[in-house]
Specification:
By secondary structure, the protein is mostly helical. The protein has one domain (3-281). The chain has helices spanning 3-15, 18-34, 47-66, 72-75, 82-91, 94-110, 124-152, 158-179, 184-191, 213-233, 238-264; strands at 38-39, 112-113, 199-201, 206-208, 271-273, 280-281. Strand 5 and strand 6 form a beta hairpin. Helix 7 packs parallel to helix 10.
């Protein structure tokens, strides 16, 4: 069975997942509902595609990977190496990623913001990087993480549990960041995640937090590569396994480098932006 045929088969199974269907419906409704009004909090709309396409998509991907043994009979007529099946699974992550890209385009086209000040102190390039890191990349990374998890762990509760842990981590560090804005440990915790906020609404203005959005997007891409590599390591043997381990080491070094840049680059102190005024140090 060719990779294209197998990818098409797994993609159909993925799209038919009730969890993914709910995620797609909730994402579409959230974008429609939140783009009807003027937005003051720039990070309000992007959180929904990340939660639904990335989070729910991760759970659906984990369960799909765990169900590989149940589809073995259907695919047994054409013996297929486990590595090829894993590659096909990872390629199906392009489905939620495409939906994430469409969500990003819809937000850019239809979102009505109160003014440029809602983007905080970021330039156009940095704000674009923020949107990509908050919408498109979680829609890709979440499912890839789910596939990697499902290839190694068979317990069905692991996917939802990991999703809740990630959400709890993001919410906790966001609360800490809003209180301890200049804390380096809090900054390290906030960016040590697959999703991060860079601005927050403060009642009258928008706070811009420390960190480099572009470097953080690079960190997310490294996490995506690590997830694919870890998934392929399952059942890998011989020379293929050695190459995957070498790839894992290279990606780990790149992940450390991009994470370090995400922490050290960008603003050195948080600022706040009010309508009609330039950014001011907090």
């Amino acid at each position: 069975m060719t990779l294209v045929t197998l990818t098409r088969y797994e993609a159909r199974r993925y799209v038919r997942s009730p969890v993914l269907l709910v995620a797609l419906a909730l994402t579409a409704y959230a974008i429609y509902d939140l783009t009807r009004n003027v937005v003051s909090d720039a990070d309000e709309v992007p959180t929904y595609p990340a939660s639904f396409l990335g989070g729910f998509g991760m759970v659906a991907a984990c369960w799909l990977a765990q169900s590989m043994h149940r589809s073995e009979e259907a695919l047994g007529v054409a013996p297929t190496p486990a590595r090829i099946r894993t590659v096909a699974l990872c390629l199906t992550a392009l489905v939620p990623f495409a939906c994430g890209v469409l969500s990003l385009i819809a937000i850019l086209v239809f979102r009505d913001v109160a003014g440029d000040w809602t983007d905080g102190a970021f330039s156009t390039a940095d704000r674009t990087a923020v949107l990509v890191s908050q919408i498109a990349l979680p829609s890709l990374g979440g499912p890839l993480l789910g596939f990697a998890l499902g290839r190694w762990v068979r317990a069905a509760w692991v996917g939802p549990a990991l999703f809740l842990i990630i959400v709890a981590w993001i919410l906790v560090v966001e609360g800490l960041a809003s209180t301890y804005r200049d804390s380096l440990p809090v900054l390290l915790m906030r960016l040590f995640a697959p999703f991060a906020f860079f601005t927050t609404w403060n009642g009258d203005g928008v706070e811009t937090w420390r960190g480099s959005p572009m470097a953080f997007a690079g960190w997310q891409l490294c996490l995506c590569g690590l997830a694919v590599t870890v998934a392929l390591l399952r059942d890998a043997e011989g020379h293929a396994r050695r190459r995957l381990i070498a790839t894992l080491l290279v990606l780990s070094v790149l992940a450390v480098a991009t994470y370090t840049l995400a922490v050290t680059a960008g603003l050195h102190h948080p600022v706040i932006t009010y309508p009609g005024y330039p950014p001011q140090p907090i």
